[in-house]
Design a protein that fits this description.
Strand order of the largest sheet: 8-9-7-6-13-14
CATH superfamily of the largest domain: Exopolyphosphatase. Domain 2
Shape: elongated
CATH topology of the largest domain: Nucleotidyltransferase, domain 5
Membrane topology: Multi-pass membrane protein
Number of helices: 15
Cofactor: Ca(2+); Mg(2+)
Bound molecules: cytidine-5'-triphosphate, calcium ion
Keywords: ATP-binding, Calcium, Disulfide bond, Glycoprotein, Hydrolase, Magnesium, Membrane, Nucleotide-binding, Transmembrane, Transmembrane helix
Enzyme class: hydrolase
Low-confidence stretches: 490-497
Distance between the termini: 24 Å
Largest sheet: 6 strands, mixed
Number of strands: 16
GO molecular function, one term: UDP phosphatase activity
Number of domains: 3
Strand content: 15-25%
Structural class: alpha/beta
């Protein structure tokens, strides 16, 4: 009997030891799994890559620095603007008579770029310069000067430690298409069934319109892309000379020409400038562009006198659009094919600067016209007092520019009161400026793949959590099963298997 009791006590002690050992192992195992899960899930220190694009516009140059997580290059929406710098002074095309100075004008912003990008990334950071309508016009008027300017900026950029990828004049189609890519990339519209935004860009010397359409009747206006597994059939057109500074020159030159021969032009009355505005201008400053014809005058200067009459201004501005000829089913203006606009549009650059200043980014077309009419009727002195901190050159032109924008959108691109609210005036999307530069870099670095990259079933964090929960469940079941098989028997003993 004693032996039997001793055996029983021994057995019980053994079972207890086993249970304790197994429980300790299970608990230790679980702690280990949780620890690994937590450590694995800890956000890794991101490694960023960088790219630089210089937007050499007609009125000014901007330097944009983009950054993206190194391992997520091909995911949509990953590239963001890290820094932007506006070069002081005018655009590079204004250096036509002193081209060698064009490069050095970029120094301050390029030095900022060196600071903004970690030194160990400098040599692998691509840098691109794209010049737009100002340089297109200079090339038309003085080809060798445009080449000298490009050479100067190219040589200057190569003195920096970045990976120089060239300085060139981009085409109007590229400018339109890459603006469209930027807007839709930043809005996360690629790789989904969602529709895309059209893009409207207004600069100093050209304007672009780009949107997805089914049928394009003219080859010059077609661009096809396959992005993230979807085909996009784009309509795009860039109107050289229809940026707001060149249109002002065209409009002034038309008024001067209509006066020419009748009287000596001493004062040029302009309904698009505020009453009381009175500035001496040279004829040269109006006629110094391929967008306006030549004029032979003996005088050098004239006085630009404001009248502040919006409806007359509207009539004058309308005259820069030639609407009578169209050999296609539909046209925008100047005989250029354009399908009817449809869907949402993002309107950026000067579209935004001007409409934002005039507080016209929301509301109906009728309301925009009546508010602009009121604004244009304000005397110049009042305007100057209302906005003492705004650059006088910009301030003087907002009545004209606002009128031009409304006319371009309505009479030029055929927007109506019904689809006016589909236009969104935007400066930035998230942290990044809307414009062609981001799309240009994404394209040249192949960062937008034609096909959507394969995605794992679960994101990494989700995968670790799921595996942990599953392991926990299995262990719990094991414990439960163990408990069931160790249930006391009728004789008060335990069956140990
Ligand atoms: N706060 C501001 C900033 C700029 N502008 C005007 O907006 C135009 C410049 O627009 P932008 O998109 O910078 O033109 P660019 O890129 O220089 O010209 P382009 O694209 O035609 O080469 C110029 O007329 C400038 O006077 C403005 O009215 N208000
Ligand atoms: Ca521009």
């Amino acid at each position: 009997m004693d032996e039997q009791r001793e055996m029983k006590v021994k057995n019980r002690t053994m079972v207890r030891t086993m249970i304790i050992t197994i429980t300790v192992f299970i608990v230790l195992g679980f702690i280990l799994m949780v620890t690994i899960g937590v450590v694995q899930n800890k956000p890794l220190q991101q490694k960023y890559k960088y790219g630089i694009v210089l937007d050499a516009g007609s009125s000014h140059t901007s330097v944009y620095i983009y950054e993206w997580p190194a391992e997520k290059e091909n995911n949509t929406g990953m590239v963001q603007q890290k820094h932007a710098c506006n070069v002081k002074g005018k655009g590079i095309s204004s250096y036509s008579d002193k081209p060698t100075l064009a490069g050095a004008s970029l120094k301050e912003c390029m030095d900022e770029a060196c600071e903004a990008i970690p030194v160990h990334r400098h040599s692998e950071t691509p840098i691109y310069l794209g010049a737009t309508a100002g340089m297109r016009l200079l090339k038309l008027g003085n080809k060798s000067a445009s080449e000298e300017v490009l050479k100067s900026v190219g040589q200057f950029l190569q003195t920096y430690p970045f990976s120089y990828q060239g300085a060139r004049i981009i085409t109007g189609q590229e400018e339109g298409a890459f603006g469209w890519i930027t807007v839709n990339y930043l809005s996360n519209n690629f790789g989904k069934a969602s529709t895309t935004f059209g893009a409207l860009d207004l600069g100093g010397a050209s304007t672009q319109i780009t949107f997805v359409t089914a049928k394009v009747e003219s080859q010059d206006n077609t661009i096809d892309f396959r992005l993230y597994g979807n085909d996009y059939h784009l309509y795009t057109h860039s109107f050289l000379c229809y940026g707001k500074d060149q249109v002002l020159k065209m409009s002034l030159s038309k008024s001067i020409n209509s006066k020419h021969g009748q009287t000596d032009i001493i004062a040029l009355e302009d309904p698009c400038f505020h009453e009381g505005y009175n500035v001496t201008m040279t004829f040269q400053s109006v006629f110094n562009s391929p967008c306006v014809g030549r004029l032979n005058l003996t005088q050098n200067t004239f006085t630009h006198v404001g009248l502040g009459k919006w409806s007359e201004c509207h009539t004058v501005v309308r005259k820069v659009f030639q609407k009578s000829e169209c050999k296609y089913s539909t046209c925008s203006f100047n005989g250029v094919f354009q399908p009817p606009v449809h869907g949402n549009f993002g309107a950026f650059s000067a579209f935004y600067f001007v409409m934002d200043f005039l507080n016209l980014t929301a509301g109906s077309l009728d309301k925009a016209q009546s508010k602009l009419q009121e604004y244009c009727a304000l005397p110049w002195n009042t305007i100057k007092k209302m906005y003492p901190h705004v650059k006088e050159k910009y301030l003087a032109e907002y009545c004209f520019s606002g009128t031009y924008i409304l006319t371009l959108l309505e009479d030029g691109y055929n927007f109506t009161s019904d689809n006016w609210n589909y236009i969104r005036f935007i400066k930035k999307i998230g942290e990044s400026d809307a414009g062609w530069t981001l799309g240009y870099m994404l394209n040249l670095t192949n960062m937008i793949p034609a096909e959507a990259p394969d995605k794992p079933l679960l994101p990494y964090g989700g995968y670790v959590t799921f595996m942990l929960l599953l392991s926990f469940l299995i262990l719990s079941l094991c414990l439960l099963a163990y408990k069931c098989f160790c249930r006391p028997t009728g004789s008060g003993q335990r069956d140990v298997i």
